[in-house]
Amino acid sequence: MPELPDVEGHRRFVAERAAGRTVERVEAPDPDLVRNTTPQGLGRALNGRTFREPSRHGKWLLAHTDGPTLVLHFGMTGYLHWGEAGDDRHEHDRVVVVTDGGELRFNCMRKFGGVWLARDDPAEVTGPLGPDALEVDRDAFGELLAGRRGGVKSALMDQELLAGLGNLLADEILWRARTHPRTPVGDLDAGDVDDLHDAMREVLTGALPHERVPPEEGWLTGVRDEDAPSCPRCGAPLEHGTVASRSTWWCPACQPPPSV
DNA sequence: CAGGATGTTGGGTC
DNA sequence: CGACCCAACATCCT
Predict the structure, then answer these.
(1) Is A153 a catalytic residue?
(2) What is the pLDDT of residues A14-34, one digit of tens each?
(3) pTM of the predicted model, to two decimals?
């Protein structure tokens, strides 16, 4: 679930369902997913507080209140849903914030995500993050890459460089920009950086309405789970390998490998 | 049964 | 320090 468009969807969900509601208590069916305090401590900090308009930085969701901020990260399988008091909960609902108008439920099957309490600056729990990928214009993007060593895919996915892109988005952007994922950043010329920035904007703005990387026609994500996927653009059989320690798909025709 | 999956962290290496 | 790799985390699915 969790790359920038997914988390933006969760942000909208909090804005629609939780903003303006007041916390009555916190319940943690799995207390381990309350990461930097105890469920009791989280409750003491949030009880009586009212959710305000949430924000997002990269893959982190910041559910602000009129006091501290509830910070959420979704790992690989986290999502939010809403329930009314007395509704059956899902077995993977790990943390539940009970408000005066219903329950915000953090569901996380694989338990890679979690919730944190930020009494002050959320950066204390998120750690250092680069600028949000949606906010980076062409010049800023070029400056981020300038001086960067290593491969372009690992750069795009480095949250301290640029926040919000994950494995699916990185492959999607590289495919759209016709750039091989193993291309050294230092080999990119200005036109390549233009193409990458354009592709990033197109992929993000295209994905946002879906609140996910859409597995649709014309997207790499639409074919990457097939048995023998082929390029949605040129039809060549896609290649697969490990790049930046992640499962990676690319088109050998559209994205020629970097010359050694 | 083995292997893989949209993420992050910590340890070790060069 | 910058960057890479791997293992680990927990759970489900093929």
Answers:
(1) no
(2) 999 999 999 999 999 999 999
(3) 0.97
Local structure of A115: helix, strand or coil: strand
CA distance A59 to A30: 22
Which residues, 6 or more positions from A76, have their beta carbon under 8 angstroms from its beta carbon?
A: A1, A2, A110, A112, A113
Strand C neighbours among A 132-161, CB < 7 A: 147-151, 154-155, 158
* Residue A209, number of CB atoms within 10 A of its CB: 10
Q: Is the CB of A246 under 7 A from strand C?
A: no
Q: For residue A129, how many other CB atoms are within 10 A of its CB? A: 18
Nucleotide nearest the Cα atom of A213 (by C1'): B6
pLDDT tens across A57-88, in order? Answer: 999 999 999 999 999 999 999 999 999 988 99
Q: Which two tokens stand for residue A146?
A: 């300038």
Phi and psi dihedrals of A220, rounded to 5?
Answer: -60, -40
Continuous H helices in A72-209: 123-126, 138-145, 152-157, 167-176, 190-207
Contact by Cβ (8 Å): A219, A213? yes
